[in-house]
Design a protein that fits this description.
The chain is 35% helix and 32% strand. It has a single domain (29-113), classed as Hepatocyte Growth Factor (3-Layer(bba) Sandwich). The longest helix is centred in the first third of the chain and has 20 residues, at 2-21. The relative contact order is 0.23. The chain is an alpha+beta fold and 114 residues long. Strands 1-4-2-3 form a four-stranded antiparallel sheet, with helices on one face.
Length: 114
């Protein structure tokens, strides 16, 4: 326990300094809530074929109009969505809803970076 108390402050400082050196923000602008074996049916912005789940997530992140996506693992197809109105069971689908980070947290993180 004494060792933990002794090293706690240097470890915190190291984490804070390395985050600023690399220019990373501590809080992302959004995150995804995943649903396995669920298809967010309809509202497709586009179709991407011969892709991966990670690429599908990046494609949605790159589009402001994208609020969710469904990735079909059987066919390696991605369907970025403009909305989610209908959820249907579909084995092999991985769907995710984009959730924005609270702006107050982003402001706090940006202020800490300066």
């Amino acid at each position: 326990m004494l060792l933990y108390r002794f090293l706690r402050l240097p470890l915190i400082l190291l984490c804070l300094l390395t985050g600023q050196v690399w220019g990373q923000t501590a809080v992302p602008e959004h995150r995804y809530l995943f649903s396995r074996d669920v298809d967010f049916y309809g509202a497709d912005l586009t179709n991407l074929f011969d892709t991966t789940l990670d690429a599908c997530q990046r494609a949605c992140s790159a589009q402001a109009a994208c609020v969710a996506f469904t990735f079909n693992a059987r066919s390696n197809a991605c369907f970025p969505k403009s909305g989610v109105s209908d959820r249907q069971p579909y084995e092999g689908a991985m769907s995710a809803r984009k959730v924005a980070t609270n702006p107050c947290l982003l402001y706090t993180s940006d202020a800490a970076d300066e």
